[in-house]
Amino acid sequence: MTADRRIEDITDRIRERSRPTREPYLARLQAANASKGPQRARLNCGNLAHGFAACGPVDKERLTGDRTLNLGIITAYNDMLSAHQPFETYPEMIRQVAREMGATAQVAGGVPAMCDGVTQGQTGMELSLFSRDVIAMATAVGLSHDMFDAALYLGVCDKIVPGLVIGALAFGHLPAIFVPAGPMTSGLPNDEKARVRQLYAEGKVGRAELLEAESKSYHGPGTCTFYGTANSNQMLMEIMGLHTPGSSFVNPGTPLRDALTREATRRALAITAQGNEYTPVGLVVDERAVVNGVVGLHATGGSTNHTLHLVAMAAAAGIQLTWQDISDLSDTTPLLARVYPNGLADVNHFHAAGGMGFLIRELLDRGLLHDDVRTSWGTGLRGYTVEARLSADGLGVERVPAPEVSGDPRVLATADAPFSTEGGLRVLEGNMGRAVIKVSAVKPERRVVEAPARVFESQDALQAAFKAGELVGDFVAVVRFQGPRSNGMPELHKLTPTLGVLQDRGQRVALVTDGRMSGASGKIPAAIHVTPEAVDGGTIARIREGDMIRVDGDTGRLEILVDEAELTARPPATADLSANEAGTGRELFSVFRRMVGTADAGASVF
């Protein structure tokens, strides 16, 4: 059991709140696995014949019988995303391992995978958040053929893993293992990349210099090396027991990476309903696993996007996670990792310093994680306090205990001497509603800003004001009509260099927006995901130029310092959003904009 009573109390609170939705979910899970034998045994002969028509003779013979296990592969492969390009070769590797074990494996379906790095600041970014729910639906379509006894999920990046998790939980009776591809090797240091971006924003270097820096930073196959949403995803899958231990941050194209993929295949076959270790994903993801995920997010200073995604992922398992839960867990969790943007290191340095095994052990020993969880690996979470290495024969994986001492205390700290006694994310509340701030990347002296508002209704308008030299003195930039119902809640990441320039000039600046920032939320205090959003008439729509705004990342307050009666009497601003309704496929997502829920409920259409 968890030693820290605060963690237990928050978990109990979530469990009790979730009872009306979790119990029906578990009942559906049990009903879906009521039949004995392989899942495809319930299919009619014509159904089954279609299901293996394209298979080779050996696989076809096995699938005609009623004993052979069949793995479904859901892949987010495309060769434009650096993180997903390595997945091209995984299906054949998985099929080969399955055949060696007397089983079969089929690609059940592909899901879309867009790159936020490509769409940042472009109209395509307005599809990004909604792509998560599309991925969940595409996962369900792939698994709907009911041919599979377990599934492997190949995905890494921002909305892709949350979407895959939501889809997997819709088939919660199936065992699931998530298979990463790993981060690219270290390139241009992230702080140097950020420096060149700021120089470009100031007009001190040109596009050629900027492109050279970006290309040296993002230079090969694998995940981007900063600690944004993609790498936060991998941390979550491991700390929630959905990866094999030690597999999150092994570089692609290495023998160990391939050995881990082969191992994941064997493990998926071992945990089906036909064996003695049946481990359906709907039981792995319970209230304790969700709390472990939130604690891991805080301890590593992870992505603000997961204040949306974790809520939506939990809901898919019938678990009601709230921002208040996330905030309370932040108060309890120490910050143990310094990885860019809340440090200079990248994820390869984090992994080399001891990585996930060291982190999980430190949190477990402090009583901040639930060890008594069910994992896909078949152990409690203590089984993840290891490092994965290539076995002596070069074909398999062996594990050794995580190091007792951090390989680099500047990157990975102990729970007894953390970088901060509180987590990296905080929920803000006040008369403007609720918002989220990532404090781990913001220097303590910069976390409180009280200044007049400069109001914009697009990030391009703020950029234009900067280029015109109009952003002088201290101010709080209010960028509104960027919420999920307005335009799909795009990330406003390209504002980071602009506001960073002004802060470096000595101005006190902050950002308030109903949009998203990014997993790479930087050194500017940014109150994001403001709820209610402007298009719903939230207080952010009543802010006027010059109003005093207070963003207090220390006490968790977000306030407009205007008399309440005056504020209430003001009519909310409106905006012409017609330009966001078409082009780059946005017309196909109008139903999402109409149906999407609020940010604090996960910004989901489900």
Textual characterization of the structure:
- Catalyzes the dehydration of 6-phospho-D-gluconate to 2-dehydro-3-deoxy-6-phospho-D-gluconate.
- Its cofactor is [4Fe-4S] cluster.
- Keywords: 4Fe-4S, Carbohydrate metabolism, Gluconate utilization, Iron, Iron-sulfur, Lyase, Metal-binding.
- Pathway: Carbohydrate metabolism; Entner-Doudoroff pathway.
- The protein has two domains: 7-185 and 220-401, no CATH class; 425-601, Glucose Oxidase, domain 1 (3-Layer(bba) Sandwich), CATH 3.50.30.80.
- Helices cover 37% and strands 13% of the residues.
- It contains 22 helices and 14 strands.
- A hairpin with a 2-residue loop joins β7 (425-430) and β8 (433-438).
